[in-house]
């Protein structure tokens, strides 16, 4: 089993489709081209060829590696700068990386920067992704990388900046020139079975699905609190857009900018409370010692960090 599957709790989709372990096995030219196509790389992986490269190849590979390291460092430094200035912006970079990657199917779409054409879709509405994408544009211009690479690497960078593990992300993704297909992100009302079926399409098993859900330890979701009456009176897409812009954003956990396992603890606590006997008194009639602390759980896929 590849190492990537062992550490997917670090939000493996931000590293998708980088599989550096593949680059060290001998591949013939045909398999190398297929692998390069799967990874979304713009050039074949010459360092994995069976034939011994000559001095020119080694020099070129060394220069390319240095350039990739410089670009990676450039992206991460800009991402961390934004996190230092605006800690609440960090989850938005992570959400942006997932929304760009989760459109991946067998048609070759996926982590390709197409989300910059998709901000008007229901699942992407709201100011948080717009702000994150403006920061991504700065990375593209300053670091001379594709939108797809900037989005993927910045997602990994903010995980580390929020106290999570360091996630290695390879570069080389090509940008899409048009939006990916619609209806490819999970809806908020999916049952557990439907969620499993959805993530099976992305190649994720149950363990990886649970790990990915843990990313909701950071960020916020958009509630209907504070939405004015004229906004609530709207219908359809107009209602959705207005409530996303006007609704109060509430945190998933008590530490929405810290990458930890608090979300999982809250889920287990919620399950424990479901098994408790019904209280004899109404909440407002209980004394402080009889009240349980509130949980911040909500529907994960309706999040708007």
From TrEMBL:
UniProt keywords, alphabetically: Heme, Iron, Metal-binding, Oxidoreductase, Peroxidase, Signal
Family annotation (InterPro entries): Ccp1-like, Haem_peroxidase, Haem_peroxidase_sf, Peroxidase_I, Peroxidases_AS, Peroxidases_heam-ligand_BS
This protein's record includes keyword Heme: yes
UniProt-listed SUPFAM superfamilies: Heme-dependent peroxidases
Signal peptide feature range: 1-22
UniProt keyword annotation of Calcium present: no
Stored PROSITE patterns: PEROXIDASE_1, PEROXIDASE_2, PEROXIDASE_4
Boundaries of every Plant heme peroxidase family profile domain copy: 62-269
Family: Belongs to the peroxidase family.
Protein name per Swiss-Prot or TrEMBL: Plant heme peroxidase family profile domain-containing protein
Source organism of the structure: Durusdinium trenchii
Upper lineage: Eukaryota, Sar, Alveolata, Dinophyceae, Suessiales
């Amino acid at each position: 089993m590849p190492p990537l599957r062992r550490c997917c709790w670090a939000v493996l989709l931000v590293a998708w489709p980088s599989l550096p372990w593949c680059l060290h096995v001998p591949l013939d030219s045909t398999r190398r081209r297929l692998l390069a196509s799967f990874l979304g790389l713009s050039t074949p992986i010459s360092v994995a060829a069976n034939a011994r490269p000559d001095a020119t190849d080694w020099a070129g590979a060394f220069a390319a590696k240095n350039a990739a390291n410089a670009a990676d460092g450039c992206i991460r430094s800009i991402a961390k700068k934004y996190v230092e200035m605006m800690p609440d912006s960090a989850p938005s970079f992570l959400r942006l990386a997932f929304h760009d990657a989760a459109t991946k199917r067998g048609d070759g779409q996926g982590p390709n920067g197409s989300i910059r054409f998709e901000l008007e879709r229901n699942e992407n509405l709201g100011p948080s992704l717009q702000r994150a994408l403006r920061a991504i544009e700065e990375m593209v211009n300053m670091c001379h990388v594709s939108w797809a690479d900037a989005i993927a690497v910045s997602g990994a960078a903010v995980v580390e900046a929020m106290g999570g593990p360091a996630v290695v992300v390879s570069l080389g993704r090509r940008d899409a020139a048009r939006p990916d297909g619609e209806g490819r992100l999970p809806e908020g009302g999916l049952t557990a079975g439907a969620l499993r079926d959805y993530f099976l399409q992305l190649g994720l098993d149950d363990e990886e699905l649970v790990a990915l859900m843990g990313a909701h330890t950071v960020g916020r979701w958009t509630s209907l609190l504070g939405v004015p009456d004229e906004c609530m009176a709207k219908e359809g897409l107009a209602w959705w857009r207005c409530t996303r812009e006007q609704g109060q954003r509430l945190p998933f956990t008590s530490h929405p900018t810290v990458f930890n396992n608090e979300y999982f603890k809250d889920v287990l606590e919620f399950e424990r409370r479901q098994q408790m006997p019904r209280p004899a008194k109404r909440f407002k009639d209980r004394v402080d010692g009889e009240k349980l602390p509130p949980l911040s759980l909500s529907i994960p896929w309706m999040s708007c960090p």
